[in-house]
């Protein structure tokens, strides 16, 4: 394989690396070539087809400033920190049906030389002593195949559990114990090998030549990376879904159900045991239709509505409070 030197070490956000993957896949990759590089990030990375708000423990993420991202591959959400290494393998598609094992065997063979025996499990996991140390995702298109995965050196498992759903403390406590029984860190098995030494070993063991990204390419990749940091990529790329918000106030209980498609509100349904001051709730529902599903947008709309004229004793602040844990970004 060909090792890519990307000169982006220390950057714990994945945007540059996603842009690099796309660049290698669409512009560098030639027949009979396979590229490899490693990277580190800190935060939650959700799959391309997931609804981010459903994957994250929003109160915890907001309190602890845990960052969140969306990757261009499928699969589930993962948490990574600086004590976890990500790796990417990019190659041309083979004539056979895709199998993670065909590519991950290179990783497991490298660890065997360190005296660490890794096994495959399920569709995309690598296990150590029956516990997961690596999860992987892929995409393939007309240009080739891209696969990337995690490698848990000394990952903070408790933060991983708390940052991902569910938010209930009892479930979290049970979850930490449960997850610890199913995941593993590599560090205790490596006879004192540091994280940096492990990465250097894998890069040397798995590759036979180097492609060094030049400064012109770096600047272009930084520009391309902005797409993966955009709200459009993060939220409007999500599949259609329904968001239900519920809260009890002194004036009654209210449920608000939103159908969201491409980041826009397609339908609103408000129910509850409150008292209406008008014949129906259209004066509250209608202004929200076909609007951007974001905290800033909702806040602006509510500022133009007199909620106390629609629901007895309710205030605009009450309705806005419903959305506090519906969005990760509520600083606007």
TrEMBL record:
Listed PROSITE patterns: BPL_LPL_CATALYTIC
Catalytic reactions on record: L-lysyl-[lipoyl-carrier protein] + (R)-lipoate + ATP = N(6)-[(R)-lipoyl]-L-lysyl-[lipoyl-carrier protein] + AMP + diphosphate + H(+)
Keywords: ATP-binding, Ligase, Nucleotide-binding, Nucleotidyltransferase, Transferase
GO terms of biological process kind: protein lipoylation
InterPro entries to which the protein is assigned, alphabetical: aa-tRNA-synth_II/BPL/LPL, BPL_LPL_catalytic, Lipoate_protein_ligase_C, LipoylTrfase_LipoateP_Ligase
Pfam families xrefs: Lip_prot_lig_C, LplA-B_cat
Keyword Nucleotidyltransferase: yes
GO MF annotation list: ATP binding; lipoate-protein ligase activity; lipoyltransferase activity
EC number of this enzyme: 6.3.1.20
BPL/LPL catalytic domain sequence ranges: 28-214
A single cellular component GO annotation: cytoplasm
Keyword Transmembrane helix assigned: no
Pathway terms, separated by semicolons: Protein modification; protein lipoylation via exogenous pathway; protein N(6)-(lipoyl)lysine from lipoate: step 1/2; Protein modification; protein lipoylation via exogenous pathway; protein N(6)-(lipoyl)lysine from lipoate: step 2/2
Highest rank taxon of the organism: Bacteria
PANTHER family reported for this sequence: LIPOATE-PROTEIN LIGASE, LIPOYLTRANSFERASE 1, MITOCHONDRIAL
Protein name per UniProt: lipoate--protein ligase
Protein species of origin: Acholeplasma laidlawii (strain PG-8A)
Gene name for this UniProt entry: lplA1
């Amino acid at each position: 394989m060909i090792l890519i030197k990307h000169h982006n070490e220390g950057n714990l956000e994945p945007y540059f690396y996603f842009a690099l993957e796309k660049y290698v896949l669409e512009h560098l990759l030639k027949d009979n070539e396979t590229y490899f590089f490693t990277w580190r990030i800190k935060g939650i990375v959700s799959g391309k087809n997931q609804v981010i708000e459903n994957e994250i423990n929003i109160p915890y993420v907001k309190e602890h400033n845990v960052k969140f991202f969306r990757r261009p591959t499928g699969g589930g959400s993962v948490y990574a920190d600086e004590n976890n290494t990500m790796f990417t393998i990019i190659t041309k598609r083979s004539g056979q049906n895709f199998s993670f094992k065909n590519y991950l065997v290179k990783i497991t063979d490298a660890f065997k030389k360190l005296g660490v025996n890794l096994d495959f499990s399920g569709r995309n996991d690598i296990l150590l002593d029956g516990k997961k140390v690596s999860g992987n995702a892929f995409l393939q298109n007309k240009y080739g195949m891209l696969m990337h995965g995690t490698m848990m050196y000394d990952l903070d498992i408790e933060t991983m559990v708390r940052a991902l759903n569910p938010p209930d403390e009892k479930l979290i406590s049970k979850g930490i114990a449960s997850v610890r029984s199913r995941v593993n860190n590599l560090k205790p098995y490596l006879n004192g090998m540091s994280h940096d030494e492990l990465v250097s070993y894998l890069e040397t063991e798995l590759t036979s030549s180097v492609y060094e990204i030049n400064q012109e390419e770096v600047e272009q990749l930084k520009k391309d990376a902005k797409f993966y940091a955009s709200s459009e990529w993060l939220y409007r790329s999500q599949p259609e879904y329904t968001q239900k918000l519920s809260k009890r106030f002194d004036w009654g209980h209210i449920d608000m159900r939103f159908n969201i498609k491409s980041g826009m509100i397609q339908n609103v349904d408000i129910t509850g045991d409150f008292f209406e001051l008008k014949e129906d709730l259209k004066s509250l529902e209608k202004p929200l239709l076909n609007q951007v599903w974001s905290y800033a947008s909702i806040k602006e709309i509510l500022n133009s509505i007199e909620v106390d004229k629609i629901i007895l004793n309710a205030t605009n602040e009450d309705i806005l409070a419903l959305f506090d844990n519906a969005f990760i970004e509520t600083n606007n």
